[in-house]
Amino acid sequence: MVDSQPETGLVRNNMITLTEAAAAQVKQSTEQSGAEDLALRIAVRKTHDGQFNYIMGFDDIASGGDFSIVTQGVTVVVDKDSRELLKGTTVDYVEIEPGEPRFIFLNPNDPDYVPPETSEEGSGEN
Predict the structure, then answer these.
(1) What is the pTM for the complete model shown?
(2) What pLDDT is recorded for position 117?
(3) How many domains does the chain have?
(4) How many angstroms separate the CA atoms of 83 and 62, rounded?
(5) Percent helix, strand and coil across the chain, each to the nearest 5
(6) Burial of residue 35 (number of CB atoms within 10 Å: 0-12, 13-18, 19+)
């Protein structure tokens, strides 16, 4: 959802955010596949056991209930069924295993979500 802050005139996106790394990878993928004019559609579906299944792809078809934002220069489209499940999500592109980069979803609504450690937490200093 996009909220306007009248006191600052800024627009705040509290729906979904792409990191710089994720946006760069999406832009590279659009260029390589000739999909520069397409939006990135992100959806999430809850499985029967409560797990979240994330879906991403390029799309040029908009539905009436779609929500569209621009984050890091990438147009992201979310369907109405995924809106609440994706609220507050950050999409990043990281190398979890050497040589195996992938997109990850940091979603506080996901039952398996574990907040990332901050640099202070990870350093062992208090």
Answers:
(1) 0.79
(2) 79
(3) 1
(4) 15
(5) 20, 40, 40
(6) middle
End-to-end CA, the chain: 36
Per DSSP, the three-state class of 25 is helix
The CATH number for 62's domain is 2.60.300.12
And the tokens for 31? 């260029």
pLDDT, tens only, 86-101: 999 999 999 988 999 9
Q: Residue 14: which of 24, 23, 5 has the closest Cα?
A: 5
Give every residue of the chain whose pLDDT is below 70, as ranges. 1-13, 118-126
What per-residue string of b and e applies to 69-88 under the rule 16 or more CB within 10 Å gives b?
bebbebebbbbeebbebbee
Pairing between β-strand 10-13 and β-strand 100-106 as defined by DSSP bridges? unpaired
Domain that holds residue 28: 2-123
